[in-house]
Amino acid sequence: MRRPGRVVDVTGCAPGGGTVFGSGCLVGDGLVLTARHVVVDAASGRAVEGLAVRSLEDDQAWPCEVTWAGSARLDAALLRVVDPRGLRAGPVRWGQVASATGKVACEAIGFPRAMEQTHGPDAGVRDTERFTGNVNAGTGLLGGRLHVSADDQVPERGGWQGMSGAALWAGELLIGVIVEDPPAWRARRLVAEPVSLLWAEPGFREALGPGAVLESVEFAGPPRVAASSPAYLLRADARAVRFRSRVRELVSLTEWCGGGGLRVRLLTGPGGQGKTRLAGELCRRLEQAPEPWFTSWWNDGPAVGEHGRSRALERPDGPVLVVLDYAETRPDVVAEAVYSAHRAAAAGATVRVLLLARGAGDWWQRLMESDGLLEQVLDDALVEELAPLETDPGAVPVAYGEALADLDAALTTMDWPHHPPSAVPPLDDRAPGRFTGPGAALSLQMSALAALLGDDTGPEPATGVRGPVSSHRDPPVESGQRVDPGGQAEPGRPAKTGGPVEEVILRHERRYWRNSARHHGLTLTDLTLRRAVAVATLCGAAGEDQAVALLEQVPRLGDQSEDVRLALARWLRDLYPPATPHAPAPPSPAYRTAPSPGGRHDGGPVASTAQNAYWSPLQPDRLAEHLVASMVNEFPGWLRHLAGHTSAEQDYQALTVLARAWVRHREIHAEVVGMIAAQPAVAAIALRVATQSEDPSVLLSGLTALLRDTDLPLLEAAALVDLLPRRSRVLSGFAVDITASLADMFERLPTSRLDTYLPLLANILNKLSVRLSEAGRSEEGLTANRRATSIYQRLAENHVHLAALADALNNQSNLLSELGRHEEALATIRRAVEIRERLAGTDPDPSSALANSLTSMSVILALLGRHEEGLAASGRANAIHERLAESAPDTSLPDLAASLNILSIHLGELGRHEEALAAIRRTVEIRERLADTAPDAHLPNLAGSLAILSIRLGELGRHEEALAPAERATRAYEHLAETDPAVYLPGLARALDNLTTRLVRLRQYEEALEAGQRAVHVYERLIEAAPGAYPRHLAASLTNLSGPLHVLGRLEEALAAVLRAVHVYEPLAEADPDAHLHHLAGLLTNVADLAGELGRRDEALTALRRAIGIYEPLTEAHPDRFAPDLFRCYLIADELAPMTDPRERAALVITTLTIGLDRGHEPLARAAAQRLRHLSRTHPIMVTQAWHELMETEPPDWLLQD
Questions:
Q1: Average pLDDT, stretch 757-761?
Q2: Which Gene3D superfamilies would you find in this protein's record (predicted)?
């Protein structure tokens, strides 16, 4: 009903004679809202006599009575027209102001005294005045009323007397009732009782009836559309079927809403699982809680009125729940919601953001990695999959019976012909199982609706678009009654109702289309109308011109006049109006930092976009997908034609809908593939949709066909491959395959053409090698890289390609290192460094490329234990990067962090622990800054640096400080490994190893054991995939694990772990003794120690003799490095079988003591001193002689004292 049609004047007989006069608003059938002081005598508290109201559209005075009288403190009342036939009107939308700050535009229409006619035949009659102004939120807080400042000129005569009782509107919401014209403001301000205070009165809500809802002005969306067709009853926001079950989920969601601050939750599940309905029920309960919440469904469309939802979140006057449906297709809107909610929470508000999506795939990971704030907030988000509504087949008949009863009532209210529930056949024994899987909630309701509708579409409706009243009305089905639709629950399966349940429903929806079209003057066939709905559902339209152009592509409509297509476009807009836009958001170049206006309050919108909001599609999704699939099957090749006549936004929506439809309608596979293959322009859009889709297989097939089976120019194909995201769990395998296919296409060129494209081929092969490495296929990556390197070497005669050759060699070195072939990797990186040095020699500016190659070489030298050389290389690299960072910090900081990272490793290994700590602290600081702005690129490196920081702190004995970065590194790698295990599992294993060490140092042995066992398990998985790459890492992890096992008294398990490590290291030490022999000796020492403790003396001595045989020549060559290890061996041997030559023992101990003192190794020096004093007591002469020979001084007094 139009707003002026709700305006009424209110009259009555004053107690002392005369007439009372005021304004009012028709808020329902025969129900009028007005001010209490107009209709209740202040002195007696009784209603005035002779109350009557007249509307602008009906001059008749309708007697009334007061049905709710407010109170002395609440100046509002509700009147009921005595005659039930009088003044019919639908319900209004009730609202409240959510924001505690800012202005809210509003208006009121009433009968002020200033509008009283003073001359002519209408003398004494008051006309209406439209008052416009702004509610200044934050004014009148003590009184709790709304203070409205006038926008325009105000009356001089009589002020606003007579406006009392007029409804105050903000947009589409009634937010208050005018009650006062304060004299101090000289008619420039009116005061209103807010609806929010009325809502707290049970008598007020009871008078309104059960359907009334209180919305917030800032968050309110468009009004709910009245049920007009059977398909509407299946929408979540229609709530045609009662809400059932979900007790556990509602308890969990309610608990999640507890507390303050900001929390985000992602609820996933297939279409038809009940996500939107569950979110709507949560909203309803929060709105009706003792301390009500504001709830907001964020669309892309405009908000009601001019009050943006973003401003409401700046300082809301209560807790807020924000819900976003179809989040996977709307990452930009998700980002906006998180930004706004974060700002509100920072200001002290309580905000919850509930995201609904079909899955948490690449879109979720990419959103988290898009900037630091999103990563911080979403990393703490709770992600859970919604289980099917019914998991017990025995509960299905009850749920089905309830659906039949509720849908029967809804169809009867709509006057839609249908069968009574009693005519629906019972379920057969096989049916219940099909209602307990994914999407079963919608399957059940669709089957119930199809069973009620049946095959007979009935006679034409007598009037309008509604059918005749059903001739029956059965009572509701009892909850335990066994009923059945007589058909299949799953879409696409034949049912006794005649075909898939979707087709049954669409046959009845057709009547709605046909009669609505007739009212628009359209005489098109049912089939043409169906096709028009299908294409509107598939593509959407931004405006009328685009809608008309789109309809020209519908088969059989291209030859119609433009006037017909215009009428059809307007019919579609009225058929499914854009009040709840549905289209998925189109690709956006960047996430916006402020939310777009809009929102909705009711049971739940569907995804939307302002760009494609001329009409809404058919809903629910499953029905829409069936309709689209049938259209695609009806016209082979039509999709290919359509894609050449649509915008990028329409292509995005079409591919999104088609990818969803394909999940249930595999028969459209060839058509979708053909569409992508025939239209290269949609390929980039298909790549984006693939990262958001439940199952992108059909899109990837189309992209594959485009590159492999068409005559796409090679350069265009190469450009498409360049669009592939660097990291994507969904696209990683596809990226490898497509890049390999592109390389193969170049390889098959005739020699005459290949020579022209050789540089491009080499570049593609080099990229392929990186893709394969990131996919954990290092051996294949090495093969591709060697081919690229070979080409670049041929081209290197032209110095233009020398830099590319160095890049390829750098990548080859990394691949060799990944495969554990470190010596070959070192030789390769040396070649890259030589080329870089040659190129840098001709360039006076420092070369970042040279510095990067030096850093890579330094990493490999670290893996080989050659830390002096590594320190020199990393020092050179660091010096270059420091100079570059001064002039270009944005581009040079990542490389500087990398060189500092490896510099810290070398310094630490060489005992320069304070310098090492300083270097790694700088690295972490830089990488934290970088990860804040681009976590996708820098979070992995930050995780590695945190692990090294932990190690450096541990080396300095700062074990409490070392634990926090070790835990951060582990969490980061866990997160990364979930999305890309092939790439990040090695980092996770290293982080777990380090965490094990930190926990042991803090004597948290149980936690250390758990971390150590996880590390070993990860390395075992890695070795299965790449046997040659991780043996030494597994050995180190097994050794680490033996520590907590030993302390916890599990000696047999500890010894078994170390023996496994020995078995792993023996072939490594044999192949490369310089790199691995000393590690094998250390393991053998551990075996001796543990075997001795277990009383297995012979086994211990055998291991110990092997260790001593390795350490003795090493100590002779490098006493500073290996004497402590040899000393430990002798200590163990002394306990197992005392040495026979005391002089040799004394010499060893003196050497160890000297090393401990020189290097500041206090525990080693103390242990050696104690052992030397013990020897001096038993063999003083031998000890003195050894001291003279080695130290060339007299023994110290402490050595000779008893």
A1: 85
A2: 2.40.10.120, Tetratricopeptide repeat domain
**Is 334 in contact with 327 (CB distance < 8 Å)?**
yes
Q: How many CA atoms lie less than 13 Å away from 1017 in the CB half-sphere?
A: 7
Question: CB-based contacts of 188: which residues, under 8 Å, 6+ apart?
Answer: 149, 150, 154
Phi (first) and psi of residue 457, to 5 degrees = -80, 0
The answer to whether 8 and 48 have CB atoms below 8 angstroms apart is: no
- Which tokens in the block code for residue 561? 């006049």
Tell me, rounded to whole angstroms, the distance of Cα 561 from its chain centroid: 46
**Residues 224 and 237: beta-carbon distance below 8 Å:** yes
Q: Are 617 and 361 in contact (CB under 8 A)?
A: no
CB 77 within 8 A of CB 70: yes
Nearest-CA neighbor of 97 among 198, 260, 219, 200? 219
CATH code that applies to domain 713-818: 1.25.40.10
Cα–Cα dist 291/683, whole Å = 50
Query: What's the rounded Cα separation, in Å, for the pair 179 and 40?
Result: 13
Q: Residue written as tokens 């009892």?
A: 478
Residue 483 has pLDDT above 60, yes or no: no
| 246-385 has the same fold as 3-209 | no
Number of neighbouring beta carbons within 10 Å of residue 767: 21
The predicted model scores a pTM of 0.65
Domain ranges of the chain: 3-209, 246-385, 393-510, 524-574+619-706, 713-818
Tell me the CA distances in angstroms from 862 to 857, 947, 1110, one per residue in order.
9, 16, 22
For 442-473, how does the pLDDT look when each residue is reduced to its tens digit (9 = 90+)? 888 888 898 888 865 544 433 333 332 233 33
Cβ count near 1047 (within 10 Å)? 14
Q: What is the pLDDT of residues 578-604, one digit of tens each?
A: 754 333 333 333 322 222 223 323 333
Domain spanning 246-385: which CATH class is it, in words? Answer: alpha beta
Planar angle of CA 972, 785, 803, nearest 5 degrees: 95
Q: How far, in Å, CA of 108 to CA of 173, rounded?
A: 12
CATH class of 3-209: mainly beta
Residue-wise pLDDT for 131-149, tens only, equals 888 888 777 667 778 988 8
Q: What is the CA radius of gyration of the chain?
A: 39
> Which band of pLDDT confidence, cut at 50, 70 and 90, is reported for residue 798?
low
Q: Return the DSSP state at 1090.
A: H
Q: What is the pLDDT of residues 726-751, one digit of tens each?
A: 666 677 788 888 888 888 888 877 77
SS (H, E, C) 842-857: CCCCCCHHHHHHHHHH
pLDDT category at 1202 given cuts 50, 70, 90 is low
